[in-house]
Specification:
With 263 residues, the protein is α/β, with parallel strands linked by helices. It has helices at residues 37-48, 86-91, 94-109, 129-136, 164-171, 173-182, 188-194, 206-219, 222-235, 240-259, and strands at 5-10, 13-18, 21-26, 56-61, 117-122, 125-127, 139-143, 147-149, 186-187, 199-201. The chain is globular.
Length: 263
Amino acid sequence: MPDPTVLLERDGVRLTADDSVATVTLCNPAKRNAQSPAMWRTLAEAGRLLPGDVRVVVLRGEGQSFSAGLDRQAFTPEGFDGEPSFIDLARGSDKLLDETIAEYQEAFTWWRRSDIVSIAAVQGHAIGAGFQLALACDLRVCADDAQFAMRETSLGLVPDLGGTKPLVDLVGYARALEICATGRFVHGTEAERLGLANLVVPAAELDATVRDLAGALLAAPRDAVIETKALLQGAVGRSYEEQRPAERAAQGRRLRDLAGVGE
């Protein structure tokens, strides 16, 4: 089989595509795939570069850790070369701080687009920003050595990369508060029990399990998956009475499409 096409490789991020499946790899294992503003901009660019025929996106990390979170260099006075340090941002205007964090969040917001299904393949540590990146995906398949932790509160900060909403949706308010406020580790088996992980498998089986899941997702017609995903995403904000007409409308679109009948 031909090797996947490399579409982007920069700042600790590699984007490859193989027919309907794209893979985003965090590829700085020497730093346990610690994250930086440059990585976040490249992750956002990866979302913009996805070919139109991609249906499944796999997010993975090289080495022993999925991602150990924010690179601690961000907290030094020097920060990263060419980037404002967090200390500089704290001294800046509210508008600049808000705009900067909004730019960082773009790396975490495209994974739940309606035209793709995203899978985070998590092994080892997924801490802070790493936890939030895994939460950004639709699905999570974890190795049995996976360890999630939201350490921001322990550092005097808050999770601000889009992770709070999906965490509450998955585990409920009380459990989300306990996980964030204590900063404790949630291991693979507990993650599955709480609903954070769809599957937990031995580390040696992680890649094969993700491939099997991607194949199963590709088995159904694309438009049916897109409509179903949108229907389920919208259900969170709808009442039962509101959801049923949404189901009828979506089914009507699918039936007309299958019958070749225009709107």
